[in-house]
Each structure stands twice: as structure tokens, then as C-alpha cells.
Amino acid sequence: MSARDQLRRAYGGRVPGLLGARHSYAVLCPLAEGPGGPELLFEVRSASLRRQPGEVCFPGGQVEPGETPEETALRETEEELAIPRREIELLGRPDFICSQAGFLLQPVLGLVSPAGLAALSPSPAEVAEVFAVPLSFFRETEPEMYVYDLLPRVPADFPYDAVGVPPDYRWSRGKVEVPVWRWQGRAVWGMTARITADIVRHLD
To answer: How far is it between the farthest Cα atoms of the chain?
Structure first.
């Protein structure tokens, strides 16, 4: 088989992913009707979890082989909150996040039915609590905004001569914005807050 045919077979019909991504994750952004209008549901991660204990997040997890982000988000929500997937109406996909840590985070927006809310029962092993915040709060309240720098750390033995650049080469730098919303003693922040801000932006 020629190289051209091999490439055609490898790339024909292929769905592109994030180059170099080690993992891909999906989360559900669960909307529900509250007393004063639509609300977003958030989890507080169990204190016993090894990664990010006690942090506020959306339900979700790693995309398994053969799964779509929607399937992952619904599966993880059912596992973490016991909300049956049939009780969630998928509304679309907010913008995804490419993390500097080398993974892709893909949010899925879904509307939880009253029956789904009635079935909600957080898994103690993963979820400490669930709380709801009216969308109107996020629309009317600007988040606190913090920024940190991404600085290159180039190895001392980098082959500057071989690649044709001087030792004082100006490597690309970056910045990461970290929004924080405070709500009744809890903090919605980081990637979860960035996804929330994207949802609010599309409402406005």
C-alpha cells in the first residue's frame, strides 16, 4: 500500500481531536427550573477523593473509547447524582477548554426534568453536596478575575544552534484567567466558572 493510500485510510472520515491531548473529559452543565427561573446545579467533590477534594464542579469524567461527550456526561451524571439520562434533555455544547495540563474538557448543556430532580441522590463516595445557583445571579454579578502567568522553563541543554535560534530566543508566554463567583459561602471558580461564563454570554 502506498503512503498516499495509507494516509487516506488513516484520515478519511476521521474526527480531529486535540493534538497531544493525553485525556479528554466531558461534564454536564445541568439546568433545572427553580422558583425564580432557571438554575445551574453544581457539585462539591467529596473530601475523600484523591484529586481536587472539596472543589465545586459539574458532574463528569473521562471520555471512554467509543463514547461521545454527550454519552460521557450523561453516564457520569447518572453515576454521581443518580439522575436517569432519560430525564435530561440535551440542549447543546458550550465551548470546550484546552488545558495547559494536556487535556480537553468538553461541556454539555442539559435540562433536568422535575422527575430527574426528584431522583437526585448524590453518591457519597464522589459528591459531598449539590447546590443550585440561579442563572440570574451569574448574569447580574461580575466574577472576581485573577490572572496567572504561564512561563517557559527551557532545559539548559536545548540545541539552540541546531534549530537556528539564539539563546535569548523569546519563547511564547501565556496567561490564564481564573474567574471566581462567591455564592452563599461557596466558590464557583476556575474551569467551572469559565464554562458558566460562556453559558451566560450566550444568554446575553
So the answer is: 66
